[in-house]
Amino acid sequence: MMTRVPRRLRIGAAAALLCGATSTFALNTATIVSSTLSPDCLEYRVVGICYWLYCTWTGCTVRTSIKVRHYIPDAVVSSYSNTGENPWTEVRAMSTSNPTAQAGGDGTTNHDNENNLAKFKNADVIGHPGGQLFSQFASSSGYACEGAGTAFMPYLLSTLDTIAWRYNVPEAVYPEALIPGMREIGARTSLNLWGAVYPRGGFLHQTDDHKSGAVVAQRAGDVVTRRGQLHVYQPLLANSRDGYWPAGALVESDASTGKWQELTPRLSSSCAVFPNNGPLTQAQQGDYAWALWRPYSCCQRRGQVFLGSVDFN
């Protein structure tokens, strides 16, 4: 007779396997789903108490429920050089070449010391496919919140955002794009400047290809976590409601708005913001992908009327 393995043990074993997987590999849906088993990225915490008014025909009472906060993998953000070659193999058909978006790659002459030639990256933001496994994983810690992402939903495909992504129209004239020091990833003073968020397109100047991919991923995440941007995209945002506080706009280098888990060329079991101090593995074909984890807070409904919440800190 087969012995049933407890769910916590199965999750722990999968997480241990994830921690050991760090080599370059072909990125597929199964790998992405298993990457959600990351306690470091989840960062589950009890942060407060919610108050509810519960009424019956005999009268009303005040009930309480705990308020929790944790991160959720909302999307997979791919940043890659060759148009139509998203490193996530099962979704490549979503962003094939079209008459307005065909070629890709870098404007270089293969000299490592050249830093005045442009690199170009496509970017796709697609709903993370690991929702069901993640829900089981998060629920093992307690009550779990709902994210904004829908599995396999395309939120931004740069091949359909040609005017903004390839020509920087109209963002090339935004103050953030014209004034040095505004909206930058890293800092000039620390000699660790990866690049600027604006203009939020596929071109940038950066000799390190991994850093180029990260900057472009940050740009794509910046667009989809805001409403009313002059891009072709769908907002990756949820609406707040009683007892539910969804993630807002993504801000570079601010983990309280979102953090990144590298998926390829190196599968990581932890999350960080850009710039980070971890190993920067260079992809042979210039293709990178990260899972975008964003913070949500919520509490279980225990009455008809939400009276408010109190945070411990």
Write the layout of secondary structure elements.
Elements: H1 7-20, H2 29-34, H3 39-42, E1 45-56, E2 59-80, E3 105-106, E4 119-120, E5 122-127, H4 131-139, E6 154-157, H5 162-167, H6 175-178, E7 184-185, E8 195-196, E9 203-204, H7 209-224, E10 244-245, E11 259-264, E12 287-299, E13 305-311
Antiparallel strand pairs: 1-2, 1-13, 2-5, 2-12, 3-4, 4-9, 5-6, 7-8, 10-12, 11-12
What does this protein structure show overall?
- The protein is an alpha+beta fold.
- It has one domain (25-308).
- Helices cover 19% and strands 26% of the residues.
- It has helices spanning 7-20, 29-34, 39-42, 131-139, 162-167, 175-178, 209-224; strands at residues 45-56, 59-80, 105-106, 119-120, 122-127, 154-157, 184-185, 195-196, 203-204, 244-245, 259-264, 287-299, 305-311.
- Strands 1, 2, 5, 6, 10, 11, 12 and 13 form an 8-stranded antiparallel sheet that branches. Strands 3-4-9 form a 3-stranded antiparallel sheet, with helices on one face. A two-stranded antiparallel ribbon has the order 7-8.
- Strand 1 (45-56) and strand 2 form a beta hairpin.
- The longest helix has 16 residues, at 209-224.
- It starts with 6 loop residues before the first helix and ends with a strand.
Number of domains: 1
Q: Total number of helical segments? A: 7
Global geometry: elongated
- DSSP strand (E) fraction? 25-35%
Number of strands: 13
Give the overall average pLDDT: 89
Oligomeric description of these chains: single chain
Which structural class fits the helix and strand makeup?
alpha+beta
Low-confidence stretches: 1-24
Rounded to the nearest angstrom, the distance between the terminal CA atoms is 51 Å
Main β-sheet description: 8 strands, antiparallel
Helix fraction by DSSP (H/I, runs of at least 4): 10-25%
Tell me the Rg in angstroms. 21 Å
In N-to-C order, the SSE pattern is HHHEEEEEHEHHEEEHEEEE
